[in-house]
Design a protein that fits this description.
CATH class of the largest domain in chain A: Alpha Beta
Structural class of chain B: alpha/beta
CATH architecture of the largest domain in chain A: 2-Layer Sandwich
Shape of chain B: globular
Distance between the termini of chain B: 60 Å
Helix content of chain A: 25-40%
Largest sheet of chain B: 6 strands, parallel
Number of domains of chain B: 3
Shape of chain A: elongated
Strand content of chain A: 35-45%
CATH class of the largest domain in chain B: Alpha Beta
Strand order of the largest sheet of chain B: 2-1-3-4-6-5
CATH topology of the largest domain in chain A: Alpha-Beta Plaits
Largest sheet of chain A: 5 strands, antiparallel
Structural class of chain A: alpha+beta
Number of strands of chain A: 9
Radius of gyration of chain B: 24 Å
Order of helices and strands of chain A: EHEEHEEHEEHEE
Number of strands of chain B: 18
Radius of gyration of chain A: 19 Å
Number of helices of chain B: 22
CATH superfamily of the largest domain in chain A: ACT domain
Number of domains of chain A: 2
Strand content of chain B: 15-25%
Oligomer: heterodimer
Number of helices of chain A: 4
């Protein structure tokens, strides 16, 4: 099993996300995460999909996704040639006694404290998956009350392989 | 002008001559507007038949078939027909009425989320929210349905959008779709590689699928194989791409195909698949079949190439454009010995049947009717044992062979034959079905009569769901379950009820006179052919 990050440029029409996710479910492809958002041109969305499977399946995913009428372009974001980012919001139980310790860990990871309550802190962390996993593991000693993670998004590095919008 | 008028205008722009359908309140504005158009409407008796009839028309003319039904159950009844067209890449535009857009999502009477429901069976679908989008959407729908790998497109139009006034109606002359641009021309470098591979090949073979007739490449293919002396086999959907009796044609491959066709494919050293999916019924174990050969896969859909087996040379493009380019190439092949070998297989491996004299032998019947039919006749085979017999014994000359290959939808032949015959009234059209598939579309006899379509309907009657019975014979040692059709209905009485001619063929002695009578009738005719209930295709 390999893992690949697919980046799609799709028409920003209603139902485009359901067409893409429907394709994955009906063909039995393994989808790990999917994110979508507008590009600089609001006619297009950029959709990032992390999928896993053997080489044949990953090749089929690329071709089947490219075949969708709404999809303009499919790229594979190769590790090393791309940057990946994910965002996590973590609500930790932090009372006066352990608040400083939690803030210290957050500082090491360059995370931001974005909300302080009498008994809680909400921490915002941006990074690749490994960094966020490591941060969550460290917080394990404290009580994580709620956690929300976006899925991975990313961009290829450099000027090569840019798909210019018409 | 309202939305419904605009839809009809668009259909006129697209040169649509027939709309098959079934009305209901949600599509009534459409059916009201169509009264002031020359487009003919055909009231089918169940919505599934509307899609099959449109499919028969599309496959006869090469144009896009159109059907229009109401919301809710009308739309959901259409799904099997849409899925059938999708599996065989048949271009359709299916229009469904929808409840008032302000009520969408509230589960009102006859509301069904049809765009959601057909998502996996359509090439694309639209839910029209704004009446002013109608011209663009119609233009796009016909374009998507009929280009690249063809297929059905569904347009769902709420009743209030059909009734809304449209400002500045104009059918677009051209369209620019930002994200949809199918490849037509084959890459020149890849075509060169194909030519080189064929030059080197000692035992080349071309396996053609439904893509040949879908792209209208029959003449180009024929020119290519004759010029370069390359033998051809076909999948079920490829039957008719080359005339059955052509000296370079060696039959249908697959588990229901000719043993010599499979042997030809297995022993070839260079295999060119064109417009075929390498699907399980045609090629059972692709890895084994392909292990000893150069595989060249030509398809307009890049996703089909490499889906079931990895080719040595992939070529994306339309079959017609590719063979046009290939016919410009001059090269030499040495295939005399190979063709001689194939002809030897053909004589050695032809299956000999043991017909029961008390019944009609399907082989004798189908071969005889093929012989007596017009040269350019359309033969529509249904699904079941009748389909396999038709594939095995029908001889295509200059006509067409239509069947539901990918989906295997029973009941396809009667409505599809009706659509084919309406599309081309000068052609002889014959539907061949079993007594199971006949009953699935029996209601369309009324439509055929109403429209006075001179379709000849042959029912190979064995009182069983024969294909399943045959499976149970081999797999469950004759423990038959839910396959007995119990001799009903009385086809003579049915013919009488629908005011149609009727011919009965009880055994081989009746075949010549029966076929003669059947083909001489002016109007529609039902021909009942009694075959041995225990007959097998294998």
């Amino acid at each position: 099993m390999q893992r690949k990050v697919f980046q799609l440029l799709a028409d920003n029409t209603s139902g485009v996300l359901s067409r893409i996710s429907g394709l994955f479910s009906r063909r039995g492809y393994n989808i790990e995460s999917i994110t979508a958002g507008l590009t600089a041109d609001p006619k297009y969305s950029r959709i990032t999909i992390v999928a896993s499977g053997d080489a044949d399946v990953l090749e089929q995913i690329e071709k089947q996704v490219a075949k969708l009428v709404d999809v303009k372009d499919v790229k594979i974001l190769e590790p090393g040639k791309s940057v990946y980012r994910e965002l996590a919001l973590i609500k930790v139980k932090a009372e006066a006694a352990n608040r400083q310790a939690v803030i210290a860990i957050a500082d090491i990871f360059r995370a931001n404290i974005i909300d302080v309550g009498p008994k809680t802190l909400i921490i915002e962390l941006i990074g690749d998956q490994d960094k966020i996993d490591a941060f969550i593991a460290l917080l394990d000693g404290y009580e994580i009350l709620e956690l929300a993670r976006t899925a991975m998004t990313g961009l290829g590095r450099g000027i090569e392989n840019v798909t210019y919008l018409p | 002008m309202n939305g419904a008028d605009a839809i009809i205008k668009c259909l006129e722009e697209e040169n649509v001559k027939y709309v098959f359908g079934y009305p209901g309140v949600a599509i009534c504005p459409f059916y009201n507007s169509i009264l002031s158009s020359d487009i003919k409407t055909v009231l089918v008796r169940t919505e599934q038949s509307a899609a099959h009839a449109a499919s028969g028309l599309a496959r006869t003319t090469g144009e896009v078939g159109v059907c229009a039904v109401t919301s809710g159950p009308g739309a959901t009844n259409l799904i099997t027909g849409i899925a059938t067209a999708f599996a065989d890449s048949i271009p359709l535009v299916c229009i469904t009425g929808q409840v008032n857009s302000s009520l969408l999502g509230s589960d009102v009477f006859q509301e069904a989320d049809i765009t959601g429901a057909v998502e996996s069976f359509v090439k694309y679908s639209y839910l029209v929210r704004n009446v002013n989008d109608i011209p663009r959407i119609m233009k796009e729908a016909f374009h998507i349905a009929s280009t690249g790998r063809k297929g059905p497109v569904l347009i769902d139009i709420p009743i209030d959008v059909q009734n809304a006034t449209i400002k500045n109606y104009k059918y677009p002359d051209s369209l620019s779709m930002r994200t949809y641009k199918p490849t037509v021309k084959g890459n020149y470098g890849q075509l060169k590689k194909l030519v080189n591979a064929l030059e080197k090949a000692k035992k080349p073979i071309i396996c053609v699928g439904g893509g040949i007739s879908l792209s209208g490449a029959n003449d180009e293919l024929l020119k290519f194989i004759e010029k370069n002396n390359i033998p051809v086999v076909s999948t079920m959907m490829g039957i008719g791409a080359v005339a059955t009796k052509h000296p370079l044609y060696f039959g249908m491959v697959g588990n229901n195909g000719k043993p010599y066709a499979n042997k030809a494919m297995n022993e070839s050293d260079t295999l060119v698949m064109v417009g075929a999916r390498v699907a399980d019924r045609a090629i059972n174990s692709p890895d084994i079949v392909m292990s000893n050969k150069v595989l060249i896969h030509i398809d307009v859909d890049p996703a089909e190439i490499g889906k079931n087996c990895g080719p040595t040379i992939p070529i994306v493009g339309d079959a017609k454009a590719i063979f046009e380019d290939l016919n410009k190439e001059e090269f030499k092949t040495d295939t005399e010995g190979w063709i001689k070998e194939l002809n030897q297989y053909k004589t050695e491996l032809e299956i000999k049947r043991n017909p029961d004299k008390n019944f009609t032998d399907p082989e004798y019947f189908i071969k005889t009717i093929s012989d007596k039919m017009d040269e350019n006749a359309i033969y529509v085979a249904d699904v079941g044992q009748n389909q396999i017999w038709s594939c095995s014994f029908h001889e295509v000359k200059k006509g067409k062979f239509l069947t539901s290959g990918g989906m295997g939808t029973m009941g396809y032949s009667i409505p599809a034959a009706m659509g084919a015959n309406l599309a081309d009234s000068k052609r002889q059209v014959i539907a061949v079905c079993g007594d199971g598939s006949f009953q699935m579309s029996m209601c369309e006899l009324a439509t055929i009569k109403q429209e006075n379509v001179p379709v000849k309907i042959v029912v190979l009657k064995n009182n069983f769901l024969g294909m399943v019975r045959e499976y149970q014979h081999y797999t469950y040692k004759d423990n038959y379950s839910v396959v007995n059709l119990n001799d009903y209905p009385n086809l003579c009485a049915i013919a009488k009820a629908y005011d149609m001619e009727y011919v009965k063929i009880a055994n081989n002695d009746d075949v010549l006179s029966g076929i003669d009578k059947l083909l001489k009738t002016d109007g529609p005719c039902i021909c009942e052919v009694l075959v041995n209930p225990l007959d097998l295709v294998k």
